[in-house]
Specification:
The structure is a homodimer.
Chain A: E1 6-12, H1 16-26, E2 36-38, E3 43-48, E4 64-70, H2 77-83, E5 88-96, H3 99-108, E6 113-119, E7 125-129, E8 139-143
């Protein structure tokens, strides 16, 4: 296992619209994707792009901020928001070249994988690891999109 | 205000040594700085470097993971760890070109700045913004190091 790119950090929010306004108006974000539903995961998400250049210039291929709003009554985000009503940092996501190999690696380390490998917000296979086995952090592992 | 680079995410931990072992052995990190004390902030920190290339190759100039352990009895991290004994995501840090200008911007937006501007872990001026004014996220603003 080799540490991959920090693809995104997931931020839960009670209102994706309010969060978009915050990132655009207060933080000065210029590239935010349209929100879309991921019904299988019970969430609505969008991505805030960040610059790679330290002066805010350069490409916008830095670690993204994934804004996550609950979708439906069974959304796993409701529990998080009950504890953190204003929203907050929900998970981190690292890229790997081969998601099946990574899953076998973490299972071999005795880490609890949460549910089946499934298709994530970037259209590639992902899985989540239990925060109690990951130094308190809910950790998503995603296969790198082929177009990157 | 223009969104700057996501310099690092801050992860609180009850044991920086255990977290270093986790990132090195389980996550496959290859570049982790030596921990050092920041007595003025009541923390011991180190940084895990992440790759910019999506396959784990390329430079190691991606968003860093700052590991934060309490230092001293008055450390502000004790409260966080009391609520999150395993550790977890503590703050996010964005770069700006001019920290004084950024501070004035956030104050003008009615955001609560926590304490004075001071020197942060990268040796440049930083300040923190209240999570309740930042969609639930404790947010650090740091001036970009001149050597980047």
């Amino acid at each position: 296992m080799k540490l991959g790119r920090l693809n995104h950090i997931g931020i839960a929010t009670p209102s994706i619209a309010d969060s978009i306004a915050h990132y655009r108006e207060t933080m000065g974000a210029t590239q935010i994707t349209e929100p879309f539903d991921l019904p299988a995961q019970g969430v609505k998400v969008c991505f805030v792009d960040t610059p790679t250049g330290s002066d805010g210039s350069g490409g916008m291929n830095g670690t993204q901020i994934e804004l996550i709003e609950p979708l439906g009554e069974d959304s796993p985000i409701h529990g998080f928001l009950a504890k953190n009503p204003a929203g907050g940092q929900h998970h981190v996501c690292f890229e790997v070249e081969d998601v099946a190999e990574a899953r076998a690696w973490f299972e071999g380390q005795g880490k609890r994988v949460l549910g089946p490998t499934r298709i994530g917000a970037h259209g590639t296979p992902i899985f989540f690891l239990h925060p109690k086995d990951m130094m308190g952090q809910l950790t998503e592992i995603m296969e790198t999109p082929r177009d990157h």
